[in-house]
Amino acid sequence: MHGGGRMRLSEVEPGRTVRVVGIRGGPKARLLTMGVTPGAVVKVVKRAPLGDPIEVEVRGYKLSLRKEEADYVEVE
Predict the structure, then answer these.
(1) Residue 70: which H helix or E strand, with range?
(2) 7-75, what's its fold?
(3) Residue 40: per-residue pLDDT
(4) Bridge-partner residues for 75, per DSSP?
(5) Quick check: 14 pLDDT over 80?
(6) Region for residue 35 given its phi and psi (left: phi exceeds 0; alpha: psi -120 to 50; beta: otherwise)
(7) Which of 3, 12, 36, 72 is the most exposed place for a label (fewest CB within 10 A)?
């Protein structure tokens, strides 16, 4: 992570684990339904060669997020 500050989920390198701080705009209801909620711990498992989609693990489930969706998720 970049100095332990806040960043977007789309910026997190594969293999890193971060905590969701908030969701800013976008498909908020879809993300919340998938368990990507403030306080949730998210591990970035892998990223497709062109950066989309991003595979993450949250609450024991593996999910694929589009880079656009991950841009709305603020983490630290």
Answers:
(1) helix 67-70
(2) SH3 type barrels. (2.30.30)
(3) 96
(4) 7, 20
(5) yes
(6) left
(7) 3
